[in-house]
Design brief:
The protein has 498 residues and is mainly α. It has 2 domains: 146 residues; 328 residues, Neurolysin, domain 3. The protein contains 20 helices and 3 strands. Helix 9 runs parallel beside helix 10. 42% of the residues are buried.
């Protein structure tokens, strides 16, 4: 078989797989947004059946034969990247049986629905058996993928190839030290104000759509809906779903959630659609995906110029609400250690991630049982953040991730913060009028910069190499700490220790 013929056949298989992935994603989106609660059992069976079909397509012997036919051939840049990407995913997938795939999909559906009820009732023990079953299956899957590796390293590699527990321990140690110095410096200073005016959900939703439109989100290729836990989902670059959660008296948290998911969605909409079927029209890693959401949510969305523009938008929609830019800016950047990760300020956010990382590793090291999670969670929150959850709902049950078996995902948020700070540093140099534009709500040039440097690259390279292309040889941890000290230190009137 010639190279051209093998490549054509391979892309046909990938397009088929991508279509099935989109259909499976749609079932999962509906499960978290529109599905009636009694549909859970039927939906679990549907997801499991489709997951099996998808797995069979990914692992069919034909894929291995086509990859073999392309081995050692003269390939162009897209073909070489596609073969590299598919060889890796094929090797992982062929080691997992369709039966195990189906069991995991069914357990995920059961765990998600149990989590919804448990969170509502603040009752972790009712969720624990479902989580135990799911984690056992996740361990089994990791073991068959790479029996020689630590299971947590195998799971990390699924989200951010090349990242290891050893890498994260070093990175987290540096961050924890630097963040601790900043927290100590501001501890005795007066707290910044809270922005807690009441806002109706319909008015908030209109504001969210206005901000997302300014960011460049295409509503003809996407939509915004409500969910218990905000998320985004790219079914196709022309069909990208955002969900958000409206808080009646916390407009900034609600809006930050939509901006965060909007950053994810812009990445999905900006992928090279003309390369669908090559595996290249996909995000390079979950950490890089998180860099897009965190960049928009924090670097842009919590900046003073953005707050100046936002104040005008609030005044136009809510004439009776406070819209002072300085109040918005100070409130958006308030350092206040709390229980809820998605409401955390930038300075303490990574401490939330460190808690989750450490507990996940302990679970997979056998040093912690599922039933002991609440106690271990609460102890670490008291130690790292100085707070203790009053119940499981605001503690160990607050995140949806474990109910879907996404172990090893949380570190991607910190990787995203690291990448985002360095992207921002480069963008300020390359776009000298950046903050003037932001103050006017002229955000499209930012989207275009990200589209050119990140989105359109797809998976032509793995994330670390792509980031290096953009930022060069820079210390990502130092860039993040310098950015946080620069913004928050100035607000609190403190200087970084020399």
């Amino acid at each position: 078989m010639g190279t051209a013929e093998a490549w054509t056949d391979l892309t046909a298989v990938v397009r088929d797989v991508e279509a099935l992935e989109g259909a499976l994603g749609l079932l999962e989106w509906d499960q978290q947004t529109m599905m009636p609660r009694r549909g859970a059992a039927g939906r679990g069976a549907q997801i499991a059946a489709l997951a099996k079909v998808l797995h069979e397509r990914v692992t069919q012997p034909k894929v291995g034969d086509l990859l073999g036919a392309l081995e050692g051939q003269a390939l162009d840049e897209v073909q070489a990247a596609g073969v590299r990407n598919l060889r890796r995913s094929y090797a992982r997938a062929t080691r997992v049986s369709p039966t195990l795939v189906g069991k995991i999909a069914e357990a995920q559906s059961d765990a998600f629905n149990a989590w919804l009820t448990a969170k509502q009732d603040s009752d972790f023990p009712t969720f624990a058996p479902k989580l135990e079953k799911l984690l056992d299956l996740v361990r089994e899957r990791a073991a068959v993928i790479d029996p020689a590796a630590h299971p947590y390293d195998t799971l990390l590699d699924e989200f951010d190839p090349g990242t290891t527990m050893a890498d994260l321990r070093v990175t987290f140690a540096r961050l924890q030290k630097g963040l601790g110095e900043l927290l100590s410096a501001v501890r005795d200073h007066a707290e910044l104000p809270v922005y807690d005016h009441p806002f109706d959900a319909a008015g908030q939703r209109g504001l969210h759509r206005e901000v997302l439109t300014a960011m460049g989100f295409d509503f003809d290729a996407g939509r915004l809906d409500d969910a218990e836990h905000p998320f985004s989902l790219g079914l196709h670059p022309d069909d990208v779903r955002i969900t958000t959660h409206m808080y009646p008296t916390d407009l900034l948290s609600s809006l930050s959630g939509s901006i965060h998911e909007g950053g994810h969605a812009l990445y999905e909409q900006g992928l090279p659609v003309h390369l669908r079927g090559t595996t290249v029209a996909k995000p390079a890693s979950f950490g890089l995906h998180e860099s897009q959401s965190r960049f928009w949510e924090n670097y842009i969305g919590r900046s003073r110029p953005f707050c100046e523009w936002l104040g005008g938008r609030i005044a136009a929609r809510f004439p009776d609400a406070p819209a002072d830019a300085d109040l918005l800016y100070r409130s958006a950047n308030r350092i206040h250690p709390g229980m809820i990760r998605i409401k955390a300020d930038e300075v303490t956010y990574n401490l939330h991630i460190i808690v989750r990382f450490e507990l996940e590793v302990m679970l997979f090291d056998g040093k912690l049982t599922v039933r002991d999670l609440p106690e271990a969670w609460n102890a670490r929150y008291q130690e790292y953040l100085g707070v203790t959850p009053k119940n499981d709902a605001e503690g160990v049950l607050q995140d949806v991730h474990w109910s879907s078996g996404a172990i090893g995902y949380f570190p991607s948020y910190t990787l995203g913060n690291l990448y985002a700070a360095s992207f921002g540093k480069v963008l300020e140099t390359e776009m000298p009028d950046l903050w003037e534009r932001v103050g006017k709500g002229d955000l499209l040039p930012i989207r275009e910069w990200l589209r050119t440097n990140v989105h359109q690259k797809g998976t032509m390279k793995l994330a670390p190499a792509l980031v290096k292309d953009v930022v060069g040889e820079q210390d990502l941890v130092e860039n993040l700490l310098a950015y946080l000290w620069g913004r928050h230190g100035a607000l609190y009137g403190v200087k970084r220790p020399v």
